[in-house]
Structure formats: structure tokens, C-alpha cells
Amino acid sequence: MTTITLPAIESGEVDLVTGGGKLRAPGYLLKEKSVQIDVEMAEQLVSAARSAADGAYAPFSRFHVGAAVIMKDDPGKRIFSGSNVENSSFGATICAERAAIASASAQGLRKISLLAVSTPETLDMPLSQRSPCGLCRQVIREFADEDTLIICDSGEEELLGDVLDIERLLPFGFRFAAQ
Ligand code: THU
Q1: Does residue 49 fall inside a structural domain?
Q2: Residue 4 lies inside a defined structural domain of this protein
Q3: Is the CB of residue 94 below 6 angstroms from any atom belonging to ligand 1?
Q4: Is the terminal CB of the chain with fewer CB neighbours within 10 Å at N or C?
């Protein structure tokens, strides 16, 4: 296990007084956080995500995405992978991350330990073009806890990927009050 430190994110709340009432820009505070990562497992997962992208069905966008996940509650520490499955009715498209998570969930697993996503066509692009979409972030959140890490593959030499936790990936993500 290797310890890595995720950076602090801090912004203060700001009240905006307008003619129509007050608006609030909420602040956000994430303290610097040390997390444990099994680097060998991370390497395997990124490589599994890259391989999964080969199986993407993406005739419309031609944008291939692969994802791979290891679940905390899986004693076998199996790798579940998925790729995007597009559809003629564009809205029916399934993203790679959700496909991988659905596959793990189907085995009764509910806690993501590590998830890797790979976008072979944009590995040299900014993180916004290599990281999970909003819908997938919310789905990751459902099965994430404070130890969950998300790795976005990168084409940069010597860089295994960008590492985020769910609070850094999805600030203010929705939570159903009953949970
Ligand atoms: N896609 C994913 O598989 N995951 C994401 O997080 C972003 C987008 C897919 C959906 C679609 O098939 C293609 O990439 C272009 O949006």
C-alpha cells in the first residue's frame, strides 16, 4: 500500500444581494486527505479499463470508453469491467463506468474500492475529456465512500492517471434524504 495525499479544496461562501432577493454561492471545504492505494492493483485496473475500451460499441460518437472496478466488499477482489454501449436512440446509450458498476452490482457488491476509466482517443487531453460524465459521477457516488478512489487514465508519460475521491469528483452531488 502506498499513501498519497489528495489536495485541499477551499472556497468561502459568498452572499449576493440582488434586487430580487439574496443569492448564495455556497462555500466548499475539503481538507487535505491521505489515502492508501495499492499501486499494483491500480496499474492492473487502468490496464483493464484500456482493454475494455476495445469492446466499446460506439458507431455514432466513435469515442471509446473503458472502465474497470474493484469492490471493497468483494473478498475475491475481482475486476469488473465495462465499455460504452451506444444506441440509435442516443438517450439509451450506456456509459462504460455505469456498465462496469452494474456488472459488480449484479453480484451483490455495493462498495467501490477503486474505479479506473480510460478514454483512448483523448488520453492527451485535459481531465475534463478523460473523466466520468455527470450521470456516471452520481452513480459512482451511490456506491462510494470516503476511501473510494477514481483514476482517470492519462497519456502523459510516467503518469498512471489522475486520482480523485468522490467529493472532489462530484461536489454537492445529490443524496436522497432517506438514506
Ligand atoms: N461516455 C462514457 O462511456 N463515459 C463517460 O463518462 C462519458 C461518455 C460515452 C458515452 C458515449 O458513447 C460516448 O462516450 C460519447 O459521449
Answers
A1: yes
A2: no
A3: no
A4: C
Closest C-alpha to ligand 1, atom 9: 95
Three-state DSSP state, 105: helix
CB 116 within 8 A of CB 48: yes
And the C-alpha cell for 40?
Answer: 499494483
Q: Is the CB of 61 under 6 A from ligand 1?
A: yes
* Distance set, CA 109 to CA 33, 143, 148, 165, 172 (Å): 26, 9, 14, 19, 25
Per-residue confidence in pLDDT tens, the chain, 179 aa: 999 999 999 999 999 999 999 999 999 999 999 999 999 999 999 999 999 999 999 999 999 999 999 999 999 999 999 999 999 999 999 999 999 999 999 999 999 999 999 999 999 999 999 999 999 999 999 999 999 999 999 999 999 999 999 999 999 999 998 65
> Which ligand 1 atom is nearest residue 61's CA?
15
Q: Catalytic one among 32, 97, 121, 157?
A: 97
Tell me if 97 CB under 6 Å of ligand 1. Answer: yes
* Rounded distance from Cα 56 to ligand 1 centre (Å): 10
The domain total for the chain is 1
> Would the CB of 133 count as within 6 Å of ligand 1?
yes
Distance CA 143, CA 159 (A): 26
Q: What is the CATH number of the domain that holds 152?
A: 3.40.140.10
Is 40 catalytic? The answer is no
